[in-house]
Amino acid sequence: MIETRELSKRYGNLTAVDAISFKVEPGQVLGFLGPNGAGKSTTMKMIAGFLAPTSGSASVAGFDVETRPLEARRALGYLPEGAPSYGEMAVREFLDFIASMRGLDGDAGERRIDDAVGRLQLEAVLEQPIDTLSKGFKRRVGLAGAILHDPKVLILDEPTDGLDPNQKQEVRSLINSMARDKTIVISTHLLEEVHAVCTRAIIIAGGRMLADATPSELEARSRYFQAVSLSTANVEQAKAALSRVADVAAIEIDPQDQRITAFPKPGRQIFVAVSDALKAQNVTVRELALEPGRLDEVFRSITQGAGGKGART
Amino acid sequence: MKPTLTIFKRELRSYFATPVAYVFIVIFLLLAGAFSFYLGGFYERGQADLQPFFTFHPWLYLFLVPAVSMRLWAEERKSGTIELLLTLPVTLWQAVLGKFFAAWAFIAIALVLTFPIWLTVNYLGSPDNGVIFASYVGSLLMAGAFLAVGSCLSAATRNQVIAFILTVAICFVLLLAGYPLVLGAIGAIAPQGVVDAVAGLSFLTHFEAIGKGVIDLRDLVYFVLTIVVWLYASTVVIDMKKAA
Questions:
Q1: Same domain, yes or no, for A176 and A267?
Q2: Is A101 in contact with B7 (Cβ distance < 8 A)?
Q3: Do A278 and A165 reside in the same domain of the chain?
Q4: Within a domain: A309
Q5: Is B24 helix (H, G, I), strand (E, B) or coil?
Q6: Tally of CB atoms within 10 A around B196
Q7: Contact A11 B86 (CB under 8 A)
Q8: What pLDDT is attached to residue B162?
Q9: Does one domain contain both A116 and A210?
Q10: In degrees to the nearest 10, what's the CA dihedral of A167, A173, A177, A182?
C-alpha cells in the first residue's frame, strides 16, 4: 500500500509537487501521467525516500518514509528514472550486490536472482558488463534489481522507456503478472501503456493532481467518447443525413481524409440512429465505427491550461 | 553493519574492474621509489631507516588520494546510481562508511605493496622496525584523513575534476597548517589563539610525530577525529545535495 498526504516539494519559489494526496491498494496498478516536468519523478523520489518532502508525508506498506525509512525501503522495489546501474559490473555481480543489500544471501538469494533473471530474460547477458549492454537490456537489468526481493510495493519510473515494441509488451505483461498481490505505481507518458497495464490513472501537471480515475472513466471525458465516425465517397450527402439525427451535437470532417465524425449530445448514444439515418438516405459508407474515448485528447485538455510550469521531473 | 560490508566489497571490486586501480598502484609505487632513492638519497645517507621513503608520502598523497576520492560520490551522482543506492535499505552513514573504507583499503593495498623497500632496508642493515611500523600506521592514517576530506568534496559536486582540485587545495592547506606559509596568512588576520589552533590541525606535524616511532594517543585521536568529522560532513553534504 502506498499513501501520500498533501505531499509537497518546493525548490525556493518553484513548487515542483503541490499537495498531492492519494492512496494505492494492493492489486492496483496506478499510472502516473503528465507532461515532462510535471512532477511525476519528484513525487516518486519522495515516496521512495530519496528526496525529503518539503511538507506532507508519504508511507509505503504502512511505514512513513521519513520516520521509518528502512522498513519502508525494505517493502519497496524502486526503479529510478533512467534505470541507473553500476556500469562496470557484470549483470550477475550487480544482481548479487542488490540481493546482498536486501539481505538475500545463499540459496534464497540465488533463487530470487534466478527468478528475476528468468522473468526479464537476462540469461544471455549475465556475465557481461552492464556498460556494454543495449539500452533495452540496461532497463531490464534495472527492473530485475527492483523486483529482486519480491517487494509488496513497486514504483517504476518509466519502466518501458527505451524498449522496442516487443520488449515493451514483455515488460507490460510482467507488470500485469505481478499486479495481483502487489501495489504498483508506474510513470509513463505513453498513453497506450495506461490502457495496457493500469487500473487507475493520475494525471499531474505543474505539480498538481488534475485527475484520478480509471482509464475508461478518463476516456469517457473525451468528446470523442460515443462519437461515430465514418468514411464515405459521398461526403455531402452523408453530412446532410447526419445533421438530421436529433442527438447529434456536431459534425466534423477531417480535411485530410474526409472522414466524418458525428459527436453526440452529452449522455446520448447515436450509433444506431446514425446508421439508420444513413440507410434511409441510401448513403453507402466504406466503414462506420463507434469511437472509444481518446486518452490523448483528454490528456491534452486536462494538462494544457493547467500550465506545465514545473521545471523538474 | 551488513550493508556497509556489501558496499565495501562492491566498491573495492569496482576499483579493480577498471584500469584505475592498476594505474594508481603502479604510479604510486614508482613515485614512492623514485622519491626515496633520488630525492631522499636513500643510499647516500648511509642510514638503515625508511625516513626518505616516508617523508614524501604526504606529497604523494596530496595528488594521488584525491584522484581516488574524487569519484566516490561525484560519479554516483552523475550516473544517477546514488538514487539506486540510497533507496536500498541502507542508512547514509552505512553508505558513506562502506565507500570510505573501500577506498582506504585500496590505498592500504598500494601501501602494503611497498614492502620490498622494507625488506631492502632490513637486508642492507638493521633498522628500527618499530619505527618503520609506526610510520606505516601514520602514513595510512594520514591517507585516511585525505580520503575523508575527498569524500566530502566529492559529495559536493558531480564534476570529478572540481572534486579533485578542491580536495588537493584543502589537503594542501591542512598539510601545511603548522607551517609559516599557512600560519603567516592566518596570523595576519586572526589572533594568536586561532593561529595555535590551526597549527594543531596540521597533518604534517602529526604524521611526523608518529614517524618518530611513538604512536601517541593524541596523534591517533587527531587523525581518527579528522576522519570522523569529514565523513560526517559528507553525510550532511550528500543529504543537502540530493535534492539538487
A1: no
A2: yes
A3: no
A4: no
A5: helix
A6: 10
A7: no
A8: 93
A9: yes
A10: 80
Do A258 and A195 reside in the same domain of the chain? Answer: no
- Give residue A313's pLDDT: 41
User: How are strands ordered across the β-sheet holding A76-79?
Assistant: A76-79, A153-157, A183-188, A29-33, A200-205, A208-213
Q: Kindly list the residues from chain A whose CB atom is less than 8 angstroms away from the CB atom of residue B243.
A: 11, 51-52
pLDDT score for B226 = 93
Question: In CATH, what number is assigned to the domain containing residue A120?
Answer: 3.40.50.300
Put simply, the chain A residues between 48 and 67 with a CB less than 8 A from any chain B CB are 48-52
CA-based nearest distance B32→chain A, Å: 29
Position A305 confidence tier, pLDDT thresholds 50, 70, 90? low
A283-293 pLDDT per residue, tens: 888 888 888 88
**Pairing status of strand A55-60 against strand A2-11:** antiparallel
- Annotate B191-237 with DSSP letters as a single string: -HHHHHHHHTT-HHHHHHHHHTT---HHHHHHHHHHHHHHHHHHHHH
Is residue A210 located within the same domain as residue A232? no
Does the CB of B79 have a partner CB in chain A at under 8 Å?
A: yes
Q: Is residue A88 part of a domain?
A: yes
In chain A, the number of structural domains is 2
- Any B CB within 8 A of A32 CB: no
pLDDT digits (tens, 9 = 90+) for B84-114: 999 999 999 999 999 999 999 999 999 999 9
Instruction: Rank A104-113, A245-254, B37-46 by mean pLDDT and report only the highest.
Output: A104-113
Between CA A301 and CA A202 the distance in angstroms is 14
Residue of B14, B90, B242 lying closest to A88 (CB–CB)? B14
From CA A112, how far away is CA A101, in angstroms rounded?
Answer: 13
CATH number, domain of A281, equals 3.30.70.100
> With an 8 Å Cβ cutoff, is B67 touching chain A?
no
The Cα of A261 is separated from the nearest Cα of chain B by a number of Å equal to 47
User: Grid coordinates standing for B145?
Assistant: 584523513
Collect all residues of chain A within an 8 Å Cβ-Cβ radius of residue B8.
none
- Please state the domain count of chain B: 1
Size of chain A in residues: 313
Q: Which domain holds residue A282?
A: 228-291
Domain span at B104 = 2-241
Nearest to B18 among A70, A74, A88 (CB): A88
On whether residue A299 sits in a domain, the answer given is no
Residue A310 has pLDDT above 70, yes or no: no
The ipTM is 0.88
- A110 and A38 both lie in a single domain: yes
Same domain, A8 and A79: yes
- The predicted pLDDT at position B109 comes to 95
- Which position has the grid cell 549492454? A133
> CA angle at residue B23 from B20 to B25, to 5 degrees?
105
